[in-house]
Amino acid sequence: MVMTAMPGAGGLVALNHMANIAPHDGTVISVIQVTLVQDSLFNKDAKFDARDFKWIGRMDSLAFVGLASRRSGIKSLGDARKREVIAGSPGLNNVPAQTPLLLNRLAGTKFKLISGYSGIGQAFLAVERGEVDFAVSSLAGIGSILSEQVRNGDLVPIVAQSTKRIPAYPDVPVLGEFASTEVEKAFLKVFSLTADIGRALAATPGVPEDRMTILRDAFQKMIADREFQADAARIGLDLNPMKAEELAGLVRDAMNMSPQLREQVRKFYEDVLEGTK
Predict the structure, then answer these.
(1) What span, in angstroms and rounded, lies between the C-alpha atoms of 235 and 229?
(2) Is there a domain that residue 4 lies in?
């Protein structure tokens, strides 16, 4: 295995590369960018169809939680409706940036987004320093680097990006609860799919099925391996696997949208992103 990083446009550069440039022979695989369905449907710079990627399997889901600092005095989304709240995020084409913008549109909050931090960790250092009031982390990120701040109340969870409420935070609303129109519900179904796709492996489009069978069988053996499970537990990584056919089904279902609704949802998406300009 040779690891290669391909940053740019919130993962869109890598997705376009995989679809159009990388070899389609099974030698290139990726921990796939979770926004691939959203980009495929609504991003005019996406040069791929999300249904064409060849899924190998998922290691874990990827829910996100929005956290406000104790210093800010924000204890709920209701508080964020009353005054401006500065939110920090890396980039724009990702869940941490788009969550506060969606809340402004759906829940009447007053988040002001400051993007461009080098990563989630840097965004939360900005929260700690008082530069911003709010940032969004994956659930795994909370467990690995932010758990103490959440436990002692320095960081307050106020919203989650997931298909349903997170058991660890049962009183924290999820984005989908704020959708009221068909267009909003359709977009949030796609946006929240990122949690279900999670940390999943996929190969490029066009890989022959016999090679995909080899990759999928190897993945399932890895997930079932006790030594692998012990290593994951040792470094604090949860495992919540999903097979390739289930992932493919989720993507097909989310992409099943009439042309008329798709254009309405695209317009909604573009209006939301106006908040980044």
Answers:
(1) 10
(2) no
